[in-house]
């Protein structure tokens, strides 16, 4: 509890391991809870159209609370902020277990997740320094992807057995995250003494937005990560329609397995980025971003399962290699300007806005009748062109 981060900046310190453990359990709960709650809604005969609305409630919480969560993360010890926000997730999951409307419970979880995000990333720059920050981000992303894989499977399997048992397991995971947070050293607040009145808080957030978006390197990072996560959530939905058309498989499991292949690839790519990229060589990640789009376009043309798995694994590797250095760059810039918590809050606003926009464009393309294979090819080509444009702009700058 009293470990000095000034004398131990190793990524294997007790504080860092507590952060990684808390992140795994929290992300495990998030992903298991989604599938468990969807199973509950199906059991209670909610209409099918209400399922994506559940995810929109979660994403909407990130956007709605973006002006406030960064200041909260920077005004208090980040480990304690993580503990409180995981506690809010625990309350949300427990309320669903007790029969509260699932949209209300899931909204509480979304608010907790919105507050948790800037604290969990912002604390990395306080527990370690310099080039170790990229490695710390690699560990964070690897633990997150592992939690996504295991949490998704656990949520679905447990829900098939007993829905309430699945929801209880989610609450237990959040409880474990709260306990793990207790082992994070209590660090000094990064930016204490800020005003808590509504107008100054929103002004502070939008001032942070202005500062970061006017900083060339920060804008470079924000655009890159927003494009990546917007593309990631779009690919997830694209797979659901692509599998029956391209492979002739109509089950629900195959898209899940294909998504899992991307996640495994991200772990590998994140590990490679931690070894090969530093804050001074962030531009090395850009070819991987271009390859994401190219490989997605090639993937859309496949009609066999094994090449599809292989290509999605490659997409995941490129994704991990692309996004981890950009995250580290933004954290470093934020730490020395608007505060790391504010920087991640601004990033969350950009990423979640990109998710909504890209999903909207994807939905419109499907609505007007564009074949799903054509959508996949167009999506990959446009993404590659966007990253090439960002790369050229960054090089000129």
TrEMBL record:
It is a multi-pass membrane protein. The keyword Cell membrane applies. Pfam families: MFS_1. CDD domains: MFS_MefA_like. It is found in: Cell membrane. It comes from the Bacteria. The keyword Repeat does not apply. InterPro entries: Bacilysin_exporter_BacE_put, LysoPLipid__transptr_LplT, MFS, MFS_trans_sf. HAMAP family: MFS_LplT. Belongs to the major facilitator superfamily. LplT (TC 2.A.1.42) family. PANTHER family: MACROLIDE-EFFLUX PROTEIN (PTHR43266), MAJOR FACILITATOR SUPERFAMILY (MFS) PROFILE DOMAIN-CONTAINING PROTEIN (PTHR43266:SF2). Catalyzes the facilitated diffusion of 2-acyl-glycero-3-phosphoethanolamine (2-acyl-GPE) into the cell. This is Lysophospholipid transporter LplT. The lineage of its organism: Bacteria, Pseudomonadati, Pseudomonadota, Gammaproteobacteria, Enterobacterales.
């Amino acid at each position: 509890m009293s470990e000095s981060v000034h004398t131990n900046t190793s990524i294997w310190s007790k504080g860092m391991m507590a952060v990684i453990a808390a992140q795994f359990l929290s992300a495990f709960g998030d992903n298991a809870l989604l599938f468990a709650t969807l199973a509950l809604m199906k059991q209670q005969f909610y209409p099918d159209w209400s399922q994506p609305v559940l995810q929109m409630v979660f994403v909407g919480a990130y956007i709605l609370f973006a002006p406030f969560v960064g200041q909260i993360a920077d005004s208090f010890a980040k480990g304690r902020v993580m503990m409180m926000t995981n506690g809010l997730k625990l309350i949300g999951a427990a309320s669903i277990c007790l029969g509260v409307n699932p949209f209300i419970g899931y909204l509480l979880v979304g608010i907790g997740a919105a507050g948790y995000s800037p604290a969990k990333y912002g604390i990395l720059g306080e527990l370690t320094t310099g080039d170790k920050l990229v490695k710390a981000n690699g560990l964070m992303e690897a633990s997150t992807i592992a939690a996504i894989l295991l949490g998704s499977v656990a949520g679905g399997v447990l829900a098939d057995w007993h829905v309430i048992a699945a929801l209880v397991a989610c609450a237990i995971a959040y409880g474990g995250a709260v306990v793990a947070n207790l082992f994070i050293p209590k660090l000094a607040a990064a930016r204490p003494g800020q005003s808590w009145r509504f107008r100054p808080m929103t002004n502070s957030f939008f001032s942070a937005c202005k500062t970061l978006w006017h900083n060339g390197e920060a804008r470079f990072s924000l655009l890159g990560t927003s494009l990546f996560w917007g593309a990631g959530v779009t690919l997830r939905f694209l797979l659901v329609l692509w599998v029956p058309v391209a492979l002739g498989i109509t089950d629900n499991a195959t898209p899940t397995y294909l998504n899992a292949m991307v996640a495994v690839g991200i772990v590998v790519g994140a590990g490679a980025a931690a070894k090969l990229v530093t804050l001074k060589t962030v531009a090395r990640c850009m070819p991987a971003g271009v390859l994401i789009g190219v490989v997605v376009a090639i993937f859309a043309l496949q009609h066999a399962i094994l090449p599809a798995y292989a290509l999605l694994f490659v997409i995941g590797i490129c994704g991990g290699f692309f996004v981890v250095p950009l995250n580290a760059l933004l954290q470093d810039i934020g730490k020395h300007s608007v505060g790391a918590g504010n920087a991640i809050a601004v990033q969350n606003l950009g990423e979640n806005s990109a998710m909504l926009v890209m999903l909207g464009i994807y939905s419109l393309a499907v609505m007007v009748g564009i074949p799903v294979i054509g959508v996949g090819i167009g999506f990959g080509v446009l993404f590659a062109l966007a990253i090439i444009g960002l790369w050229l702009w960054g090089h000129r700058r």
